[in-house]
Amino acid sequence: MKYKIHHKTVYRYAEPLLRSVHELRLAPRSGPLQAVREWQLTVPGNLSEARDGFGNIVHSFTVAGPAHTLVIDAAGVVEVTPPGGAHAPVFCDAPPAGETRVSPLYYLGGTPLTMPVPEMIRFAAPYLAAGHEVPALLALAGGIAGRVRYKADSTDVGTSAGEAFALGSGVCQDQAQVMVACCRALGIPARYVSGYFYDPAASALASHAWADVCVDVGKELWCSIDVTHRCLSDARHVRLAVGRDYRMAAPVRGVREGGSGERLAVEIAIAPWV
């Protein structure tokens, strides 16, 4: 599948924004699961580009105010190529020649958003008692989806995996972080994935999140699991960034001076592209 994607982020401020510094992970990279055919970022400033230790394309820019509105616009075409053939549903995500990335073992470490609580470990252990092959991981994802039920606006970006697990509800971000936390607690490297999910029946589209789980550290083989939809990633999933948790893969991060009374509006459009 090939998709035309448009992601528009608008910040509005009751009081003028005096200065801000922004870090974006809004440019997907080509890899084993997708090919970026074209992509453009438009921001109110000069963009600088780099790669982080996870392999993400990172852009940054600075705004010197005063300003009451800030618009970040990302658009392009991405062709999705889900795993197939003899290695389905596993894919290799080793860095290309000349690129350095963190080892899969780095994804064993916890973060404040993904620290497991004892109840989570007790919950997850039976699913993976016989190993962490793909069917067992999918079964765990299904269990998490039933335990942390999807409920819009029940959490926020600061909600930890343990808090969402105790609450019993959350959004895709929370379900993905619970999956990541459970796997790490049982000695399996796992990472958070931010991106998009194409749903032609949805009235409004939003960013999506799921989890990558490393099934072979030495060969850097991964499987990508969408807890919310209880499935492996497929032709509906477009990847933006990966990280140890939401904060490390967030599409937009920043700090500002001034700009009180901030209001945020996000518009995402995804359509098949022929």
* Shape call: globular
CATH class: Alpha Beta
CATH topology: C8orf32 fold
- Average pLDDT over all residues: 94
Strand content: 35-45%
> If helices are DSSP runs of H or I spanning 4 or more residues, what is the number of helices?
5
* Low-pLDDT stretches: none
In total, the number of domains comes to 1
How does the major sheet shape up? 6 strands, antiparallel
Helix content: 10-25%
Helix vs. strand class: alpha+beta
Overall number of strands: 14
- Which architecture does the CATH hierarchy give at level 2? Roll
Radius of gyration using CA atoms only: 19 Å
Distance between the termini: 9 Å
Pfam families: Bact_transglu_N, Transglut_core
Domain Transglutaminase-like: 164-229
Protein name: Transglutaminase family protein
What can you see in these coordinates?
This protein has 274 residues and is of the alpha+beta class. It has a single domain, classed as C8orf32 fold (Roll), CATH 3.10.620.30. It contains 5 helices and 14 strands. Strands 1, 2, 3, 4, 13 and 14 form a 6-stranded antiparallel sheet that branches. Strands 5, 8, 9, 10, 11 and 12 form a 6-stranded antiparallel sheet that branches. A two-stranded parallel ribbon has the order 6-7. A hairpin with a 5-residue loop joins strand 3 and strand 4 (57-80). The relative contact order is 0.25. The model has no long low-confidence stretch (mean pLDDT 94).
Short structural summary:
The protein has helices spanning 118-124, 134-147, 161-167, 172-185, 246-249, and strands at 2-27, 34-42, 48-51, 57-80, 91-92, 149-150, 169-170, 190-197, 207-216, 221-226, 231-232, 237-243, 252-258, 263-272. With 274 residues, it is α+β, with helices and mostly antiparallel strands.
